[in-house]
Amino acid sequence: MATVMTPALAFASSSGSPGAIPAGFLLYEKAAAQKSATGMWSVSQARDAKLVVNPCHGGSPAAVGRIAARTVTYVAVSDQRSEQVILYNSPKAAAQALADVRGALVRCPALQTSQTAYRYSGTPLALGDEGLAVTGQLYQGGRAKVGGERVVLTRRGNALVAYARSGEWGAPDKTDFAHQTKDAHTMLAKICQVARCS
Predict the structure, then answer these.
(1) Can you spell out the DSSP letters for the chain?
(2) What is the residue-level pLDDT of the chain in tens, covering all 198 positions?
(3) φ, ψ for residue 197 (rounded to 5)?
(4) 178-184 long-range contacts, Cβ below 8 Å, gap at least 24?
(5) What is the pTM (predicted TM-score) of this model?
């Protein structure tokens, strides 16, 4: 009797161990392998890598229950981008990781200086099993100044997927998340090759 191998099983077998995130799986790893004249790329498979968004500015939310993580980062003078896929030991642990971020948005105060404040906010996003759009923004006297970050976080099964962009953002706008949302859709279409989605 022939054994039928699903794409998820085939990918897990080729990666060498269940729950692994193979090299080349993230969308921007190909770009990261090329030399850039304008910025620096890095790829990490550190399981304890900091989540690409951190409303509390200390420690790292969504750290409990991880079994694998892979992060691609691009840093230039006025542009920073991150792509991150984290696998947890269960869908419940991944859901708790996203809940940790939502809690931090409420719990952690703005980062204040004498003249400015850097604030985070989040809105639910209908993406994957659940999603969250996070805005980090610099303010002065209640007005948005240039500088901030826009992050899309989404969960499917036991996987948390994040796409972040930081740079010279002006006042927050829904269109700021278009590119990150598109990337998240692309990753969600294949995440079940490495995640437990049912």
Answers:
(1) -PPPPPHHHHHHHHHSSTT---TT-STTHHHHTS--SSEEEEEE--TTPPPS--TTSSS-SS-TTEEEEEEEEEEESSEEEEEEEEEESSHHHHHHHHHHHHHHHHHSPPEE-SSEEEEEEEEEE-STTEEEEEEEEEEETTEEEEEEEEEEEEEETTEEEEEEEEES--S--GGGGHHHHHHHHHHHTTGGGTS---
(2) 333 333 333 333 333 455 789 999 999 999 999 988 889 999 999 999 999 999 998 888 999 999 999 999 999 988 899 999 999 999 999 999 999 999 999 999 899 888 999 999 999 999 999 999 999 999 998 899 999 999 999 999 999 999 999 988 888 998 999 999 999 999 999 999 999 997
(3) -100, -5
(4) 180/150, 180/151, 180/152, 181/125, 181/127, 181/133, 181/152, 183/27, 183/83, 183/152, 184/127, 184/128, 184/131, 184/152, 184/154
(5) 0.88
Torsion of CA 137, 140, 143, 148, to 10 degrees: -20
Contact 149, 165 (CB under 8 A): yes
Q: Are 83 and 69 in contact (CB under 8 A)?
A: no
Rounded-to-integer distance, Cα 7 and Cα 74, Å: 30
